[in-house]
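Posted in: Structural Biology > Protein-Ligand Complexes

Title: Requesting predicted complex, guanosine-5'-triphosphate in pocket

I'd be grateful if someone could produce the 3D structure tokens for the following input. Sequence and ligand are given below.
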Amino acid sequence: MEKGIIVKGIGGFYYIKKGNEVFECKARGKFRSKRIIPLVGDYVLFSYDETTKQGVIEDILDRKIELIRPPVANVEQAIIVFSLKNPDPNIKLLDKILVMSEYHNLELKICINKIDLDNEKLLYEIIGIYKNTGYEVILCSTKKDIGIDRIKEVLKNKISVFAGPSGVGKSSILNKVQSGLKLKTGEISSKIKRGKHTTRHSELLQLDFGGWVVDSPGFTSLDIGYIDPEELGFLFPEFKQYMDHCKFTNCLHVNEPNCGVKNALKTGYISKERYNNYVDFLEQIKEINNRRY
Ligand SMILES: Nc1nc2c(ncn2[C@@H]2O[C@H](COP(=O)(O)OP(=O)(O)OP(=O)(O)O)[C@@H](O)[C@H]2O)c(=O)[nH]1
Ligand SMILES: [Mg+2]
Ligand SMILES: [Zn+2]
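-- Reply #1 --
Done. Output follows.
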């Protein structure tokens, strides 16, 4: 048996890279009966018949991480991409993706693309919101070649995923990061200024300068109902030091008195936008939990 990594999956076929070769394989029926879906990023054992050119995934090796959206396994880092304009950034979705990634202990970078499109006031607002989070905000423009070198540095020798809405320029950035990729990129709809879901399947790409990166289809909704309400605050890194000052150890930082997080909100160390999103996510999580039990 051979060992390889799944780089793409389309219509029941999986493309497995071993060295410089890619093998087309199907998955054994046992995975379906166990409800295991092979994911891009999975390390697998497979057999391949050279005469019939047919391959079969025999086993999936232990997954370190499994993301539902985008559906990938074993990534170490997420680069969360939004654009300054066309489409406008959705800070709530950005925070939700950050929370999901924190839950999975991923290293995180925020990338604001299309900074050639003038929206300076908003840009400073976004930088302000994330100032105390510890997250690096990488400013990019594929049109003006800004930020690409920094993206290359953060991708080097890691397994990363590009995540974000459709049309923000994920595939465009990756085409700049490595020449020869020729990823398809799409126009923005002229009326509603949204992407047209050009990338249809997640694909794991090997980088010449070291490392792997997954280009994934854009998305606009994300379920975080699996997170425990009491855990949510810990997924906002700038909340953590203030949570020690909460009177109650199980404080949810909404209605409780003597709350360290709410005090830090008053002094402006925690941003209003981040806090409001926290409260909103907490409501969503509680609602989902209520429905479940
Ligand atoms: N003005 C400007 N336009 C950009 C920039 N980067 C990408 N675009 C344009 O944005 C559009 C969408 O780019 P894509 O790379 O297809 O976006 P995507 O995030 O991969 O979208 P999906 O695959 O649909 O998720 C294209 O028309 C690009 O030319 C940029 O820095 N500035
Ligand atoms: Mg794309
Ligand atoms: Zn509190």
